[in-house]
Specification:
This protein has 217 residues and is of the alpha/beta class. It is built from nine helices and eight strands. The chain has an eight-stranded parallel β-barrel with strand order 1-2-3-4-5-6-7-8, surrounded by seven helices. Helix 7 links the parallel strand 7 and strand 8. It is globular and about 40 Å long.
């Protein structure tokens, strides 16, 4: 697929992924704290919610991210992303085909693809028109304990070969994230170390400082 010229929100910095949360007000409060701390992308992910709750939460986060001028990405669900006018969708290996997602969402939306530890999958996704690709898990993940593992050397190699945003995911903390940024990650996707923190805003600020420090070196 030929890549089309279109305005795309930058995918960089702290890429916050929401935890499963049954309470919409609680979810919004936690997401607000992450955005106040500098998260530059918010992905809505809730594997346990009913379709009605997913719609309610996605709509609430759509309004919140507009207040912060931050892109909202919906995990897996292309139709939900379209329904709430999200900025894009993130696709895994068992989700909708990228071409289908592009047909539903149009050329102005962001489509990201999980590529795990598979450079050929990333290159194929880019050829099909992906706007960013994600690699991981780089470290042990409590959310996905059996996830495929990726190494920093592969990330560094991909940075040298690919010319679009690279997102790192999997067990990332403020202590180990700097290594991934130095290897070429444009964004760090974080769930537990962010939303599991006692002070979510402070945790987000800690991640944001990693990027500021890297930009200064």
């Amino acid at each position: 697929m030929k890549r089309m010229s279109r305005p795309i929100h930058a995918i960089n910095g702290l890429y916050a992924i929401t935890p499963d949360c049954a309470s919409t007000p609680d979810l919004v409060a936690r997401a607000r704290a992450a955005l106040a701390g500098g998260a530059s992308v918010l992905q809505y992910r809730n594997k346990a919610a009913s379709p009605a709750l997913r719609l309610e939460q996605a709509q609430a986060l759509r309004a919140l991210t507009r207040d912060f001028s931050v892109p909202l990405i919906v995990n897996d669900d292309v139709l939900l992303a379209a329904q709430v006018d999200a900025d894009g969708v993130h696709l895994g290996t068992t989700d909708a085909a990228l071409g289908h997602a592009r047909g539903v969402l149009g050329t102005r939306k962001i489509i990201g693809v999980s590529c795990y530890n598979l450079p050929p999958r990333a290159k194929a996704a880019i050829g099909d028109g992906a706007d960013y690709v994600a690699f991981g898990a780089f470290f042990a993940s409590g959310v996905k304990p059996h996830a495929a593992t990726a190494d920093v050397a592969m990330l560094r190699q991909m940075r040298g070969e690919l010319r679009l945003p690279l997102v790192a995911i999997g067990g990332i903390t403020a202590q180990n994230g700097g290594e991934l940024i130095e290897a070429g990650a444009d964004a760090l996707a974080v769930i537990s170390a962010l939303f599991g923190a006692d002070d979510i805003k402070a945790a987000a600020l800690g991640f944001s400082k990693l990027f500021n420090r890297n930009a200064a070196t």
